[in-house]
Amino acid sequence: MKESQSSHILNIICRWIVGLVFIFSGFVKGVDPMGTSFKVHEYMTAWSIGSFTFEWATPLATPLAVALVTLEFTIGIMLIFNCYRRLSAWVLMLMMIFFTTTTLIDAITNKVTDCGCFGDAIKLTNWQTFWKNVALFVPTLIIFIQKKKRWDYRRHFERETLISIVAAAAMVIFAMWNINNEPCIDFRAWKVGNKMMPFDEDLEVKSYVTYKEKNTGEVMEFESKKLMDYWNDSVWRENWEFVDSRVEDPYEIKADGFSMLGPDGDDYAKDIIGNANYVLIGTIHHIDKLGDDGIKAIQSLHTFCVERGINFVLLTSALDEEVQPLLYDNGLSEMIYYFADATAIETMLRSNPGFILLKDAEVKGKWHYRNARKIFDYPFEIE
Asked: 214 Cβ partners below 8 Å, 6+ apart?
């Protein structure tokens, strides 16, 4: 069936809208396939169908993440270039049904709080993600309905095949490069150049209290140091009751929930992050997945830092009884180490282990353990 000119134009508009969204979505997740892998892993552990769970498939999280971003990107390219019109329409429809259903369940159950549809580039709530998919379903439906209609042009199977293969191959190579290195574009809080907290500034930590008038329900918040000015008034004291308090700390680290707990249980994060000297942090988010190459990278960097007088500490999610044997068996018994949540460490660096350099609370560099030797060439300015 031949399509009219108006149908043809509508089809082009719909293909470009959906295609660009899929290309963008695939690209930003392809930038950080390990982040997508963590999200796939989260779905596998959070979801179940009755007594049937998906935890058995967690080892496949990374291959599935690469497959997902490759499929999204390739379908986006196929839509833009009108390749394999019927095939791309069917695959698109199946993907949109899956995405829309999944995000609706997410929005209702909130088992996974962030679907990660645009990676770390754009954060959406579960309901925002669902309605985004509903909006995309409209042009998807138009593309699907018109899949059998043809415009006057000759089929070029070689062209369509070449475009599809090149798009898929390019995304696979791109994703694999980002897996074997830190993401080429960093959308996270620990981006190189980011200031993780104010440094060398005369800022004041302020505390506030909130009181409510018993009769009228009026609420008033003020600095705690001004409380005595009100408290000395017996009438005020009799009519107002305490509601809440909060602390406004300008030196709070700009990463939600981040901490570096020492073996003594104290949090040393601000002291380490805000150090005026260079601090190299080696991160291990899963000690059971630490390979020989990773251990060798830690060993060589520890030796390098000791020789250069650079602070080098380890940050891990493992238990103390797991860390000590690892360090002792590898000649690192004198290394200082701290503890943090695995998710917080994965947010810093995807590599396991990975290395992040800070000075004056600023992120100076980040390296995958495969690229650890590049740290030797960093232009340290040791005073």
From this structure: 239, 240, 241
